Amino acid sequence: MGATPPKQVADLVERFSRDRKVFQSPDYKEEQLRAEFLNPFFESLGWDVSNKAGLTEVYKPVIHEESIKVAGATKAPDCTFAASPAVAVPWKRFAA
Q1: Is the CA virtual torsion 73, 74, 77, 78 positive or negative?
Q2: Beta strand ranges found along 1-96 (DSSP E)
Q3: pTM to 2 decimals?
């Protein structure tokens, strides 16, 4: 069987399951999703999402809405993780 998720991840899953209708409502905004679920999720995995280390832009492990070129067009994913290679993540609110 797979590894056990961090307690904070299990808590987020339980919270979502308990109040699924609220989180899938059109009234639940993308910013709420980021603040209440995505940031805590990635922080529980060790990512410094809010730049608690106070690093300058070029050294941040997570960059929000970074302008990047994709197939000649400029895109701004919600979050870019400075991994090797970098991972750009667009996030959207939960759909019903």
Answers
A1: negative
A2: 62-64, 68-70, 73-75, 79-81, 87-89
A3: 0.77
